[in-house]
Design a protein that fits this description.
Largest sheet: 3 strands, antiparallel
Number of helices: 17
Number of strands: 16
Number of domains: 3
CATH class of the largest domain: Mainly Alpha
Distance between the termini: 47 Å
Strand content: 5-15%
């Protein structure tokens, strides 16, 4: 069944279309379907519910909203021209995004289309006479709650709809929070514990519930000067985190970067993830997004390179540097993984195709890699591949080394192709012919380390139980033993925990939500000085508002836009 579901997911993903606020979806008439078994009917109803997750988590959609709006990522006009896009990435970073931002609209459209498909599945599955239908029904309802949770977090709005042909009711604030929470609580008993991270399992529901309770204070009063974290909510965070940790289903892994490898679907740390095993032709571009256009990670494909996209901010880098000073941040194995020996031994300049792997993590300074001349990689006398110091040849700057600098900003000098330390967290797919297709690594939505850190935070917020929180944080740190574990921390408070969440979860699309909850989203970093608390929400796309204009007062813009 799992293989059948994957093939259906792939087919649906390639034929998906966008809808707007009315969440209208054509419902499959089972009576018109001939030659399908009941199991095929059940699979066919649940597959569309998950199919657009890769689109939602595209590098320019959810990643951009959750990371480029924060102190973890910045995307300037590279060389004065590349990634300009009418200033939308500059606006994201400066908290001046408008309702006409196309990436905002794309994220919105994918979410509401996924809601629509969930509603259609919820309507159809009760009539399917197959043993899997009831589990699929719970998953569809749970995924409807998850998509609404994303809408609540990003836009402060949820849609309530049971009949595919009806108009959705709109909720905001505490009512919206209570609705999503009640839906997750309702489906949790009927979810399975045995499905992989690409489907909504009982463990995934527990994790989403913990995440909701942890952010309850924010969702109830988005523009509060300070958030009131209720003890009962924090108890619930601990309760659901305990369920995950005590289940024994998930494990912290010793080799941090394997969590993000192209074969990570069976990684024991993943609880809930975007399943990328089916070749969906171009959804996971997180590996190529930050690399230089002169970095070519795959010997088999001389056209597969990076794009000189976002970098980490100097502010975020300094959080690492200051934490480990006077030592280099590389003492923490989550910061960097050296896979190319030429960095430490210049004589190692000939590498076989099977042994060639680019470095991972946060990339600084002069970069080395496969040398390319006239579109082909240079070979050594023994047939291996020649590696050496890289230059900006693809940018028509053949004498300028690819040398990543700490400083990056929106000035002409700060927007150069070399500015900003880069991130190669997800493994560059060995199948990717261009760097823009066939990304096989599952994208983490929720993993075990986050569960430990959520539990630590809840303990701090409820009773300032620093000892227990410290134990949870050090459990995560001590697990990362390859090549050596980072040093244990000796104290814990909310600021240190926020820093630790950055070290563990950087570029995993939780930073904006974290910054808001920790009261740091109105801070100043790099090119961002905006302190307007109303920017904790994004504007609802103007296209969606216009599309609902036939219903007076139905969909109104968020305050401040």
């Amino acid at each position: 069944m799992k293989k059948k579901l994957l093939s259906i997911l792939a087919a649906v993903a390639l034929t998906g279309s966008y809808s707007c606020t009315n969440l209208t979806e054509n419902v499959l008439d089972e009576a018109s379907v001939s030659g399908l078994s009941n199991q095929q009917l059940a699979d066919g109803n649940i597959a569309p519910v998950y199919a657009l997750l890769p689109n939602i988590f595209l590098h320019t959609n959810y990643f951009a909203l959750q990371e480029i709006s924060t102190d973890e990522a910045i995307l300037p006009y590279r060389g004065g021209t590349d990634w300009g896009d009418n200033g939308i990435y500059l606006a994201l970073h400066q908290h001046t995004t408008t309702s006409t931002d196309p990436n905002l609209l794309s994220t919105w459209n994918n979410l509401v289309q996924s809601l629509s498909r969930s509603v259609s599945a919820i309507s159809a599955l009760p009539t399917v006479k197959d043993g899997s239908a009831q589990v699929y029904l719970a998953e569809a309802r749970g995924m409807r709650a998850y998509y609404n949770l994303m809408l609540l977090d990003l836009f402060g709005i949820v849609f309530v709809k049971e009949d595919p042909q009806s108009t959705s009711a709109i909720l905001r604030g505490e009512a919206a929070y209570n609705y999503v929470l009640s839906e997750l609580l309702a489906v949790e008993p009927n979810l399975l514990t045995t499905v992989g991270p690409g489907r909504l399992s009982k463990g995934a529901a527990w994790g989403l519930l913990a995440r909701m309770y942890l952010n309850a204070a924010v969702y109830r009063n988005r523009t509060a000067t300070s958030f009131t974290f209720q003890s009962a909510d924090m108890d619930k965070v601990v309760e659901y985190c305990d369920k995950i940790i005590n289940s024994g289903q998930y494990q912290l892994v010793s080799d941090y970067f394997t969590i993000f490898n192209q074969d990570n679907h069976s990684n024991k740390e993943l609880i809930f993830a975007v399943d990328q095993r089916a070749e969906l032709n171009g959804n996971n571009r997180l590996a190529y997004f930050s690399l230089s256009g002169n970095q070519f990670p795959i010997p088999a494909y001389p056209a597969a390179n990076g794009t000189d996209g976002p970098a980490i901010t100097p502010d975020f880098y300094q959080s690492w540097a200051q934490a480990y000073s006077p030592k280099d941040p590389t003492v923490d194995p989550r910061f960097y993984r050296q896979n190319m020996s030429i960095y430490s031994n210049p004589a190692d300049s000939c590498v076989s195709a099977n042994d060639y792997n680019i470095n991972r993590g946060i990339l600084r300074g002069q970069q080395y890699g496969l040398l390319r001349v006239n579109g082909a990689f240079v070979r050594c006398a023994n047939g291996n591949y020649k590696v050496g110091k890289l230059f900006n040849v693809t940018r028509n700057l053949p004498t300028v080394p690819v040398n990543f600098t700490e400083q990056v900003n929106f000035t002409v000098a700060g927007s150069d192709y070399n500015t900003g330390y880069r991130v190669e967290k997800y493994e560059f797919s060995k199948k990717s012919t261009s760097g823009r297709n066939l990304g096989d690594a599952d994208i983490s939505i929720l993993r075990l380390a986050d569960v430990y850190l959520m539990r630590a935070e809840a303990k701090l917020r409820k009773s300032n139980d620093a000892a227990s929180a410290l134990a949870d944080v050090n459990t995560v740190r001590a697990a990362r033993t390859f090549p050596t574990a980072p040093p244990a921390l000796t104290s814990m408070n909310l600021d240190l925990l926020f820093r630790e969440r950055g070290f563990e979860l950087y570029w995993e699309m939780v930073r904006r939500t974290d910054m808001i909850r920790f009261g740091k989203y109105e801070g100043t970093w790099t090119e961002k000085t905006n302190t307007d608390v109303r920017k904790r929400l994004f504007p609802i796309p103007q296209t969606a508002i216009d599309g609902a204009s036939n219903i007076p007062g139905y969909l109104t813009q968020n305050e401040g836009y």
